[in-house]
Structure of Sugar kinase:
Amino acid sequence: MSKLLIVGTVAFDAIETPFGKTDKILGGAATYIGLSAANFNIDSAVVSIVGEDFPDSYLELLKKNNINIDGVEIVKGGKTFFWSGRYHNDLNTRDTLETQLNVLSDFQPLVPKDYKNAEYVMLGNLHPLVQLSVLDQIEDPKLVVLDTMNFWMDNTLEDLKKVIERVDVITINDEEARQLSGEHSLVKAARKIEEMGPKYVVIKKGEHGALLFRGDQIFFAPALPLEEVFDPTGAGDTFAGGFIGYLAYTNDVTFENMKSAIIYGSNLASFCVEKFGTERMQKLDRKQVNERLAEFRKLTQYQTHID
Amino acid sequence: MSKLLIVGTVAFDAIETPFGKTDKILGGAATYIGLSAANFNIDSAVVSIVGEDFPDSYLELLKKNNINIDGVEIVKGGKTFFWSGRYHNDLNTRDTLETQLNVLSDFQPLVPKDYKNAEYVMLGNLHPLVQLSVLDQIEDPKLVVLDTMNFWMDNTLEDLKKVIERVDVITINDEEARQLSGEHSLVKAARKIEEMGPKYVVIKKGEHGALLFRGDQIFFAPALPLEEVFDPTGAGDTFAGGFIGYLAYTNDVTFENMKSAIIYGSNLASFCVEKFGTERMQKLDRKQVNERLAEFRKLTQYQTHID
């Protein structure tokens, strides 16, 4: 059984959408990635940090999903990372209302001994130096996937570049790909980013799907057209978790298999956005997931001969 | 051989993009639709109107592409419809700089006798009353496709609704679908628009592809990721021309075949945007078209079993 090591935030979120608002609820990149990857029969562990205010029930939830949390440090007297944001009416854009780094500001990640030999490593969105520290602790991974965002490009670009140099796959959104590369065309952007290190570039376009690039090869997976998007929080992390979870489960990192991984990631993300926070991801069953995979297939596969 | 009747503008365009600008060049919805549909072995005709200033060479170009122009009225002393616009840097949005209706303001379309029995009818984007007049002149079409835009929704909504009521397929862009339906979700928007008349709704999302809806069935075709988009003018019309041209050529209006038609339309549109105006569409050969169809296939088709 493949081991998947996930580093990222485990946090409190408070979310406002046009449909309602939440108090502090469970959030964080590593949480979404972990819950998404938990849909596969793999051995995963999260490296993160929380404060003493973090409810046991949330940690239990991760454990119940077979996620090892030995690497989640609980800081006595500390407060958990907190983010709050408000989505605009189209749900494509949001304003950050508040960010409290709290215990995250001094986070020194410690990879549990049993996971130093993890074959699959997911560097969730956080400070590049934390991501680098995790890379320095792992032995000989088969595949390292990096997720990041414009905040680190704006503020810690040199550190971020050192991470990018060392990963196999990078997942970023279209605007971030343009920022990082200085190219408007996503085809050109992906090529420039490949030159920075990663063999594979995944560009996330939200409701418009995701593109996978490797050299001249391109694969595209749409997002499932949904009647309602309720809360987009965590969709990107859920996508990444499904992507690497599927790769770890199949233990196959070919381009061909990555196509399926992209579809799997998109599929799981389509559930994530149906409820606030992680709520929907806590109640997924295999039958629902498979039904929607069939919908994905119908959405893009054509049998007729048109050439 | 199926007959395809196209009504729409045959016009002058002057275009500015970040890459350059043109003087008055050949443009117009019917022109793009006709040149795109000309990639199929069908019998097509254009109903339109131009002024005495319209060059013979442009009319010859249409004829050379086997497009019957008996229905193109040439108004002695009249001036041809003229549009000029400037694209923004991202090429997704544009400002109209000038619109001169000229001969178009008194256009009374006359369908040539030989095409009153056309099986396929493409109502290109122009005044809904002109579209209605064409519908009144044709006998018993197998498929009528309507293209329209927000301008008619803003200014002549009641007339437009009368057209929508009578067509089989409507093609509009995502923002227009939202405006017409009052729904933000494209799934809900398509359902509401179906209730207005069309059995099929095609929602164009530009660089993000196109969606085909019929009841609960959805098919999605991506746009081909391109290194450069040079000039988006006419891309939507080229898409529509490829869509109905393929349907007319195969004479098969099932949902399954419409999937291929959508791919064909997207494929031809991907060529259109590579040069200014109609330039690229004048020099297409079958081999290029087929090579790119294979690229489309690679872009979205996956063989692995993922359920």
The radius of gyration of chain B is 18 Å. The longest strand of chain B covers residues 43-51.
